[in-house]
Structures are given as structure tokens and as C-alpha cells.
TrEMBL record:
Natural source organism: Geoglobus acetivorans
Domain Protein kinase: 49-260
Family note: Belongs to the protein kinase superfamily. RIO-type Ser/Thr kinase family.
Name the UniProt record assigns to this protein: non-specific serine/threonine protein kinase
Keywords in alphabetical order: ATP-binding, Kinase, Magnesium, Metal-binding, Nucleotide-binding, Serine/threonine-protein kinase, Transferase
InterPro entries, alphabetized: Kinase-like_dom_sf (IPR011009), Prot_kinase_dom (IPR000719), RIO-type_Ser/Thr_kinase (IPR051272), RIO_dom (IPR018934), RIO_kinase (IPR000687), RIO_kinase_CS (IPR018935), Tyr_kinase_AS (IPR008266)
EC number: 2.7.11.1
Amino acid sequence: MKDIKRIEKLLDQLRIKEKDSEARKIFAEVFDERTLKTLYKLSAKGYIQALGGVVSTGKEANVFYADGSINGEFKPLAVKIYRIETSEFFKMDEYLFGDRRFDMRRVSKKELIFTWVEKEFRNLERAFNAGVNVPEPYTYLKNVVLMEFLGEDERPYPTIFELKRDLSEVTDVEELYSRIKEHLTRLYRKAELVHADLSEYNIVLKDNDPYFIDMGQAVLTDHPLANSYLERDLRNLIRFFSRYGIKESFEELISSVKGD
Ligand SMILES: N#C/C(=C\c1ccncc1)C(=O)NCc1ccccc1
């Protein structure tokens, strides 16, 4: 039985913006005590000024909005919180055990999650520094990543999946496809990363510009499974954009990304 009173106290200290009891119930449910302590540390360090609402939820993590402050400047934050007792952690194995950046001998489930969070942060850094459109990474602590919030007034920008039916009305689809290829090529050749879960669900549209999100599973191009992940990513793109009359073949796309 979690100590609800202690959690309530931590939630108060976190200045949770959601005043209504329903949202506080979700917070109390979603946040175990360790996570609350981590969020409290991030707010004590000044990064999190006030926690907002849920942006998106998944089996292994949840993303919340927060008013943030980075180097004294107001910054809207996406706060991605991984569940520590998640049952999805086995999915992480194949992506971590082939990655030379991480020594995965004898780690507990908790350490596996913390390593995954470090990986997501470092992937975001590599991509951002290579000029790839991804949320700017700010910091990470235990099972929490803080990054740039891609949205306006606490509302996230839409994914191209959400825009599917109206995509050709809201943007030039040919231009969008070529910008996605440009950033995918930069991700591969400059950041030396393969996204490994790229699809219409993980491409966000901000002012007609595509951004890649959900970088936790991205792997280095020398990962043993990098080529099969890249193939899956590219086939997903071709499938989605074929409905808008874009006919590029898989062979053309993979050679334009790899540059060979
Ligand atoms: N980076 C990132 C993400 C969102 C985001 C939104 C707005 N601004 C920045 C980031 C992200 O991982 N979304 C997918 C996801 C995976 C697992 C659980 C929940 C959600």
C-alpha cells in the first residue's frame, strides 16, 4: 500500500498544476514514490517549475507537459517518465545488448530502465547536434527525460498519422516527404543512428516541418540489427506516403539515405 499521504505531500511540493482530484488520482497512480522523488529533485534543481497534463501515454512510459526553466529561460518541457515496474522492458533487450555504448552485464530491471533513459537522452543529443529535427534534449535523471516540448500552449503538434486524411490539405506532401528523407539521411550519415521505430506515429508536423520523436530505441549504424531496423523504417515510410501518390521504390530510398 503506497503511502498516499507522502505522495500527496510530494505532489503538493511539485506544484502539480492539475487542481482537480481526478488528475491528482492519475498522478498518484502513475507516479510511484521513487518517481515522485526524482521529479521533486528536478523541480528543486529548477528545471521543472510546474507539472501540467498528460501529452501521450504508452505501455512503457508516459509523456507530460511541464512549465520549465533552462539556464534561467522559460521553456515548455516534455517530461517523459518510464514506468520502473514496466512489463515491456524485455522489448528493450535487443536494442541495448547490441549497442557498444552500454555494458549490459548483470543489470537489474531498474538499472535496465535507467540505462534506457540514458540511451534515449544520448540519442536525442546525437541527433540534435547533427542538425536532425528532434526535440532538444535538456537533461535526464533515473527514469525521467526532460526535452523540448513540441507543441503550442501545452497542446502537442499533431503526428502525420493524426493528420492522415487532411495531410494534402495542410501541407505539400511531396515537400514533406523530401524533408523527412533529408532528416533521415542526416540521422544516418551524420548522427550515425537508425531510428528503429519510424512510422507516421513518430513524425510530428510543426509549421510544415517534420520532427522525429520517440528516440529511445534508436541504435548506432554499426548495431548488428541496424540494417533490418532501417529497412523496416523505410518500408513504413513508403507504405504511408504511397497513399499520396509518392511512388519511390525501396531500393531508391535506401540508396539515397545510405548514399551508396
Ligand atoms: N520524444 C518524444 C515523445 C513525445 C513528445 C511530444 C511532444 N514534445 C516532445 C516529445 C514520445 O516519445 N512520444 C511517444 C511515446 C512513447 C512512449 C510513451 C508515450 C509516448
